[in-house]
Amino acid sequence: MKIVLDTHTHTIACNHAYSTIEDNAKAAKDKGLELICITEHGPSMPGGPHKYFFANIKVVPPILHGVKVLKGIEANILDFNGKIDLPSKYENRMEIVLAGLHNMVLSPGSKMENTKAVIKTMENPLVDIIVHPGNPAYELEYTDIVQAAKDTNTFLELNNSSFVHSRKGSYPNCHYLAQLCMDQGVVVSLGSDAHFAADVGAFSKVDLMIEELNFPEKLIVNTSIEKLLNHLRSKGRELLKDPRDKLNYKEH
After folding, report:
1. pTM for the whole thing?
2. How far apart, in Å, are the Cα atoms of 56 and each of 24, 94, 125, 137, 195?
3. Most buried among 73, 92, 146, 208, using CB within 10 Å?
């Protein structure tokens, strides 16, 4: 199985990552990736980028070093009703929207509250992917989560960083979640959650899990650029546009 894209990466803009967009694109090229998503934390994250970062992200070229770049956000879920911190004024600037629970923004609630928060978030048509749902800090009813993902056509992330750098104890939850997704035909995304360029496209741990489960390639969005782009376009997104086109801008 060949992975050609990474849906979840960060840069120095979030103040707790250590590479630039260009660094990430170069790393992606070196690893043979064809597309990356720049998905900075929403402005409610301590140290996160100001909302104007998302207003001006259109200046980033759609192709860097031969790698397609989708400009997006990892929005924070703000409450148990699924509100997210994507400024409404800039919704149309986002080519992809990830959302997730972060304890720096919303402290864990009961299993029922956490599950409600995620399901309500998935009911927001702006949201494309729920990130690191295997985080053991937030107890979830996974059968309900997977059913809601199926009903709303939302992808669920298997986050490689959860097995390496953070959210210790995620593996059993992710394993169970992946099994449920297989059973229900729910598409997953593999996210490196890279906070340093060397981790862009790093899926070694999650790869082992999907191999063990014999997870079907057709349910992994990272195996085809068109699979991801067609999904986003079906939601009305304009993708890979460049304002420089009017200036006869050429690719890097």
Report:
1. 0.94
2. 19, 11, 23, 34, 21
3. 73
